[in-house]
Automatic annotation (TrEMBL):
Signal sequence extent: 1-20
Membrane-spanning intervals of the chain: none
Superkingdom, taxonomy of origin: Bacteria
Keywords (A to Z) from UniProt: Signal
Domain Outer membrane protein beta-barrel: 19-174
Protein name from the UniProt record: Outer membrane protein with beta-barrel domain
Pfam families: OMP_b-brl_2 (PF13568)
Presence of keyword Cytoplasm: no
Length: 196
């Protein structure tokens, strides 16, 4: 019982200290509208999702940073992949949908426009956690293990609720087969966050 009370006290103390220093912790969940640009993939956006946590660290009333850790899924469909990469494709694989799971780490600058609106801008680093191993013969990697992108968006701040929308543009070629076709991620994220 003493350990439980001590743990509750420690959590309460840490939470009070974080709030006193202008640091807020939260969790978020939302949808991704994804597109991998390049001749090999279809032009439309496909639906996926993300989930993770965030910190809001305010330096003053206007400026701050918002680091996050997200598990984010990218979904896309092949289009002319078979034509461009005919020799690399497994002829038995007819799968058109591709799903990539990333550990995304955005580090966003925060600018508080008013009491309710915050604008976000900054880099995002992505680490590929898994990929469609049936895409190429012998499970050969098609996608690079990392991605670098820029993020811009806005967030509505209520007492404990956050509603956000942002656009991520990939700056790095994620094609790990060859240089025939440049692939870059594009993503629109919409979601909800809860501040603890």
């Amino acid at each position: 019982m003493k350990k439980v009370l001590l743990a509750v006290f420690a959590v309460t103390l840490v939470t009070a200290t974080l709030q006193a220093q202008g640091i807020r912790l939260g969790a978020k969940v939302g949808t991704n509208l994804n597109k991998v640009s390049g001749q090999s993939f279809s032009d439309g956006f496909d639906l996926a999702y993300h989930v993770g946590g965030f910190l809001e660290i305010d330096f003053n009333k206007k400026w701050g940073i918002q680091p996050e850790v997200l598990w984010s899924q990218t979904a896309t469909k092949r289009s002319s992949f078979n034509t461009i990469y005919a020799s690399e494709i497994n002829p038995l694989n007819n799968q058109q949908k591709i799903k990539l799971d990333y550990l995304s780490i955005p580090v966003l600058f925060r600018y508080n426009v008013g009491g309710i609106l915050t604008l976000n801008l900054g880099p995002q680093f992505g680490i590929l956690l898994n990929q469609d191993k049936t895409l190429l013969q012998n499970g050969e990697s098609a996608f690079k293990s990392g991605d670098f992108s820029m993020v811009a968006g806005g967030q509505l701040n209520f007492k404990v609720l956050r509603i956000y929308g942002r656009y991520n543009i990939g700056l790095q070629n994620i094609n790990d087969i060859d240089n025939k076709d440049k692939w870059t991620n594009q993503q629109i994220q919409l979601g909800l966050g809860l501040r603890f």
